[in-house]
Amino acid sequence: MQEPPSKRRRAIVVAAMVLALAAGIAWWAPRFVQRTAPDAPHADGHRAIDQPNGSPTAANGNTHAAASLARPAQAGAPLPPPGTPLAKIYVDLKGRADTGDAAAATRLYRDARRCSEVLATLKSGPAVVSAGLGQDTSGWNELKLTQHEQALAILQDQLANAMADKTMCADLTDEQLELAPLTLQAARLGDSGASNCYVEGTIVMMGNLLDHPELLTQYKQNALLVADAAVRQGNWDMVGQLQAAYAQLYSANVLPQLTGPDLVQSYRYAKLRRLGAGARGIRYFDAELRMAAQDLPAADIHAADMWAQDTYQRYFFGKPGNNRVRSGYVCEDPNS
């Protein structure tokens, strides 16, 4: 399989281009808004509470379930060579993942996600490129022409990469390409990128919820457990996701609807982010923390500061500094 370039966009970009061309937009510049992940939720979907040892855990006390999500990756047999048709190895990888093989779960999640993108690109990409090439650009200024050419170049690059992966992604069923369960499984076995994607929720909401409403139920039952385990792994993106969710930023997204508003929890995670701020983010995190502290009682602020300090020492000390200064999209392409 040809390794996709680091600038490869997700298949959703193709859909954006379709809409742009259909609306007669003269130019399109694809990009992703990167988000930091909100703070780690817990097993029952409620906020974290302090335990005697100072570590966050599910509000219902289900510490065993939370711990099971963060178990270390298990060694297994060698994985199939990269580029092996996924349909041929799907059952084997799934069986291994079901027995706790973290490497197999990650490989299955990443290959299935890549194939989902590949098949979407192959389905809609040619028509989008054709529409773009046939668009009347007479009278456009140099800037619009440049932006239009750049957008087409990205789409053509996507198509080329998708064609290179066509064989790898052949003969897969819709059920095999249902990403939410595969993402959850990889997250449970310690894949931090899968944890970010699952908790963020877009992969779940893009699933076939009309035929599989259980995917949403599964999300409600597991997202905060996954987030809690990710925080215990020192995942800064998850801290950002939780802080934003409890503050009800991006409130139309699924995670803030799950957590609900909680100003104390939002301050906790804002304080934790400030403790891990890299040099270039300090001013932003200071301002964020001041805003989060508004109208909070002094006792709540003190307790939250103690929790954040303890959590930082337990799970984040010595980890690379947190330099993402925006809370937003964290479900990045694991293959790029």
What is this structure's SSE topology?
Elements: H1 12-22, E1 49-50, E2 56-57, H2 63-69, H3 86-98, H4 102-133, H5 142-164, H6 179-188, H7 192-200, H8 202-205, H9 214-232, H10 236-246, H11 254-259, H12 263-275, H13 282-293, H14 298-316
Antiparallel strand pairs: 1-2
Query: What is the H/E order?
Result: HEEHHHHHHHHHHHHH
Strand order of the largest sheet: 1-2
Q: Roughly what percent helix?
A: 55-70%
Percent of residues in β-strands: under 5%
Low-confidence stretches: 1-68
**Distance between the terminal alpha carbons, to the nearest Å?**
13 Å
Question: Structural class of the helix and strand makeup?
Answer: mainly alpha
Number of domains: 2
Quaternary structure classification: single chain
Number of strands: 2
3D shape = globular
**Major pleated sheet:** 2 strands, antiparallel
Please give a handful of descriptors for the protein shown.
336 residues; mainly alpha; 2 domains; two-stranded antiparallel ribbon; 14 helices; 2 strands; globular; disordered N terminus
